[in-house]
């Protein structure tokens, strides 16, 4: 029987790329998403790319009744859990919604999974849990938890909850995937990142400057002890990231307990290097101005990806050039993201339930 995977947050940026990768690998997929930061259009486009579509249920991970109904209707073997809120600034002004969606939502999901007898979980964590690392590259055994914002704390709390859960019940197999900085889009240009309002992450901001939606980029800080004074990060192509999820899923089917893997490339780039690479690929100018540091930012962070390479047989394959080319193809063919599209009929496979 084909294995069915529940993808929470599967209509979102990373979840849609993971859903596509799962379908392409022969899995059946059920997506649960409340569409608070996404559009069902991403799922329709997945069908355009691979000829298959996930089942879609519009609903919330905090809705225990819905989860119980879902687990009794579909034979789910594992859950990839992307659903959550992710904007650092917003988490500072609205911490409760972050703890409610990210922490309480995950607790409800795990309760429903356990009562349905499902114990395989791949969780979207973040390199943010390392705080300001004492050295780079960052390994999985580095200290975590010295965090400066509720978003990062919510992810750290979930990591701890999942560790406790696996300690209490040996049936759980859990992957904590600590993403570095996901960027880019599927090479078809059909799915990509569609942030609400003004983007807070670097690459969507650069893309929107290049397309003329925003005037200029503010480069946060030119006085870090880095190659050119600007912040350095490990940008990873979202398709590489999605492939890492499939490898982790495969691994936890034979490895119990909690497994932690960094998903990064092992290579850092500065903000100015990112601007130059984007200009080269797009042929567009990206005007920028160096301003003060952004509060809470760190100077540099990049992954040691060796554990994932050794244990999962996974490494990021796509370089900076491809990240930029794919980000630009997505942005230039969808200047207003998914909202450029006319409303479309809900696919037959789509169930809908709102809270
Ligand atoms: P996204 O906002 O595009 O996707 C999240 C999806 O979850 C959205 O479709 C949203 O509608 C849905 N959602 C949110 N709360 C929900 C709820 N309570 N019930 C059901 N659905 C809900 O974000 P993304 O960039 O794809 O991130 C996916 C996951 O990866 C998140 O958990 C995020 O914290 C984590 N992560 C993202 C990054 C990044 O830079 N994008 C980095 C590290 C970790
Ligand atoms: C990258 C670099 C900025 C915007 C955050 C979260 C992390 C993860 C990814 C979810 C930094 C600089 C940015 C701009 C700039 N998300 N920058 N001007 O801060 O590494 O990580 O997003 O889990 O958890 O903390 O990513 O893309 O915001 O910034 O100069 O307008 O670009 O200072 O050096 P960050 P980012």
What does this structure look like?
By secondary structure, the protein is α/β, with parallel strands linked by helices. The chain has a single domain, classed as Rossmann fold (3-Layer(aba) Sandwich). Helix content is about 40%, strand content about 20%. The protein is built from eleven helices and 15 strands. Helix 7 runs parallel beside helix 9. The radius of gyration is 19 Å and the shape is globular. The two termini are about 30 Å apart. The site of nicotinamide-adenine-dinucleotide (NAD) has 27 residues, from helix 1, helix 5 and strand 5.
Descriptive tags:
355 residues, Rossmann fold, 38% helix, eight-stranded parallel beta sheet, 15 strands, three-stranded mixed beta sheet, globular, alpha/beta, binds nicotinamide-adenine-dinucleotide
């Amino acid at each position: 029987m084909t294995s069915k995977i529940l993808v929470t947050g599967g209509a979102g940026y990373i979840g849609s790329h993971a859903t596509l990768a799962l379908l392409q690998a022969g899995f059946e997929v059920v997506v649960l998403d409340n569409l608070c930061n996404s559009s069902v259009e991403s799922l329709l486009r997945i069908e355009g790319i691979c000829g298959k579509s996930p089942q879609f249920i519009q609903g919330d991970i905090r809705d225990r009744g819905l989860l119980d109904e879902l687990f009794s209707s579909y034979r789910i073997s594992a859950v990839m859990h992307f659903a959550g809120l992710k904007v650092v600034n917003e988490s500072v002004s609205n911490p409760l919604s972050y703890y409610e969606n990210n922490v309480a939502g995950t607790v409800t999901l795990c309760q429903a999974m356990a009562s349905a007898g499902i114990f395989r979980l791949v969780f979207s964590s973040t390199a943010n849990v390392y705080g300001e690392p004492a050295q780079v590259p960052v390994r999985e055994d580095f200290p975590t938890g010295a965090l400066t914002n509720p978003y990062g704390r919510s992810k750290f709390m979930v990591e701890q909850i999942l560790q406790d859960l696996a300690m209490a019940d040996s049936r759980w197999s859990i992957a904590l995937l600590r993403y570095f900085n996901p960027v880019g889009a599927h090479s078809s240009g059909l799915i990509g990142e569609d942030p609400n309002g003004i983007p807070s992450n670097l690459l969507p901001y650069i893309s929107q400057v290049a397309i003329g939606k925003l005037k200029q980029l503010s480069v946060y800080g030119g006085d870090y002890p880095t190659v050119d004074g600007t912040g350095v990060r490990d940008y990873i192509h979202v398709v590489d990231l999605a492939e890492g999820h499939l490898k982790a899923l495969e691994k936890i089917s034979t490895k119990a307990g909690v497994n932690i893997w960094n998903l990064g490339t092992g290579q850092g780039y500065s903000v100015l290097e990112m601007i130059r690479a984007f200009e080269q690929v797009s042929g567009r100018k990206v005007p920028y101005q160096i301003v003060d540091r952004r509060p809470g930012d760190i100077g540099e962070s990049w992954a040691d990806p060796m554990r994932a390479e050794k244990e999962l047989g996974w490494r990021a394959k796509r370089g900076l050039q491809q990240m930029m080319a794919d980000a630009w193809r997505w942005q230039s063919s969808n200047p207003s993201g998914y909202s450029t599209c006319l409303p479309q009929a809900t696919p037959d496979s789509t169930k809908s339930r709102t809270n």
